[in-house]
């Protein structure tokens, strides 16, 4: 019997697929999330080895690739799903490597005969890539006997089983709600091979995320603004509707608006490049987060 092990080139396979480049990009573009990045690396390693095993006639059959991403809003689930689609494409597990992101409204109709065409159209667009269903637990509403979500689930289950070599489904949402969803839908639970939990960001990670976001837009915080924004993060994290990186992005957008208004108010004076780039402490401290009378709990997600 020929020793095929000597013929398998791991370094060559890594170079050919360029998966390591994608994993490095993921490390660069996402702050923190070490458990998530570790799990994605493990999945990528498994799939690479499975390809080599198939070359050595050791295939155990096509691996199940459907996944569940759980965590609070703004923790990077969609970004990781996008990179996962690219990884699967480079390793040859999906044809196209694109991501189609949807919610319940894209899949479930409002009257009889409406759900199946909607769901099948989404599946058609996603074929050859990854279908990302955010807040997937909203598909199942047992309290409403006239709800059509179960029809969408049944169609998804059939495609996830029969066409798993041409479509990967990632279900996402809050961890506790996803747990109840899987408990109520054992058929869906049995088709999920990988469960990845996304932790909330620590304060110092949120500060680093803010720095990256500002740098990408050619803004920066003054020293006083950095201290004010660290205080903002500490206060905002303790309030309802906090959405991690999403809330940070929204806060920075509002700080830019305040900076612009402050600069425009300086009519009759000249502006330097540094003026245009720098967000000052006053642009942060005017936030409702620092106003004890503000009802921040009523603010929308990300405020």
Report on this model:
Helices cover 52% and strands 10% of the residues. It is an alpha/beta fold. Helix 7 (149-162) links the parallel strand 3 and strand 4. The longest helix has 22 residues, at 34-55. The chain starts with 9 loop residues before the first helix and ends in an 18-residue tail after the last helix. The relative contact order is 0.11. The model is unreliable at 293-303 (pLDDT under 50).
Overview in brief:
By secondary structure, this protein is of the alpha/beta class. It has helices spanning 10-17, 19-29, 34-55, 77-90, 104-107, 115-126, 149-162, 175-184, 186-189, 203-216, 223-237, 245-264, 273-277, 281-285, and strands spanning 67-71, 99-102, 130-134, 168-173, 194-198, 220-221, 278-279. The strands form 2 sheets. The chain has a 5-stranded parallel β-sheet, sandwiched between helices. Strands 6-7 form a two-stranded parallel sheet.
Furnish the topology, listing elements before pairings.
Layout: H1 10-17, H2 19-29, H3 34-55, E1 67-71, H4 77-90, E2 99-102, H5 104-107, H6 115-126, E3 130-134, H7 149-162, E4 168-173, H8 175-184, H9 186-189, E5 194-198, H10 203-216, E6 220-221, H11 223-237, H12 245-264, H13 273-277, E7 278-279, H14 281-285
Parallel strand pairs: 1-4, 1-5, 2-3, 3-4, 6-7
């Amino acid at each position: 019997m020929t020793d095929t092990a000597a013929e398998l080139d791991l370094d060559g396979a890594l170079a050919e697929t360029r998966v390591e480049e994608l994993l490095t990009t993921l490390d660069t573009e996402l702050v923190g999330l070490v458990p998530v990045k570790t799990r994605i690396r493990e999945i990528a390693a498994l799939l690479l080895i499975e390809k080599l095993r198939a070359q050595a006639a050791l295939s155990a059959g096509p691996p199940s690739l459907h996944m569940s991403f759980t965590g609070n809003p703004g923790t990077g689930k969609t970004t990781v799903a996008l990179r996962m689609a690219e990884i699967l494409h480079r390793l040859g597990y999906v044809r196209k490597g694109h991501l189609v992101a949807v919610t319940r409204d894209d899949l479930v109709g409002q009257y009889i005969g409406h759900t199946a065409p909607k769901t099948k159209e989404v599946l058609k667009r996603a074929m050859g890539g990854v279908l990302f269903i955010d807040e997937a637990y909203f598909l199942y509403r047992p309290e409403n006997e006239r709800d059509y979500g179960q029809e969408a689930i049944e169609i998804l289950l059939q495609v996830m089983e029969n066409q798993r070599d041409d479509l990967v489904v990632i279900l996402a949402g809050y961890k506790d709600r996803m747990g109840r969803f899987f408990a109520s839908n054992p058929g869906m639970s049995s088709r999920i091979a990988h469960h990845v939990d996304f932790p909330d960001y620590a304060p110092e990670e949120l500060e680093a995320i803010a720095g990256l976001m500002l740098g990408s837009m050619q803004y920066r915080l003054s020293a006083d603004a950095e201290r004010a924004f660290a205080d903002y993060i500490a206060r905002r994290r303790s309030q309802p509707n906090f959405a991690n990186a999403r809330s940070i992005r929204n806060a920075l957008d509002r700080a830019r608006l305040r900076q612009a208004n402050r600069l425009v108010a300086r009519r009759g004076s000249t502006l330097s490049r540094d003026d245009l780039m720098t967000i000052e402490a006053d642009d942060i401290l005017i936030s409702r987060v620092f106003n004890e009378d503000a009802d921040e709990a009523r603010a929308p997600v990300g405020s």
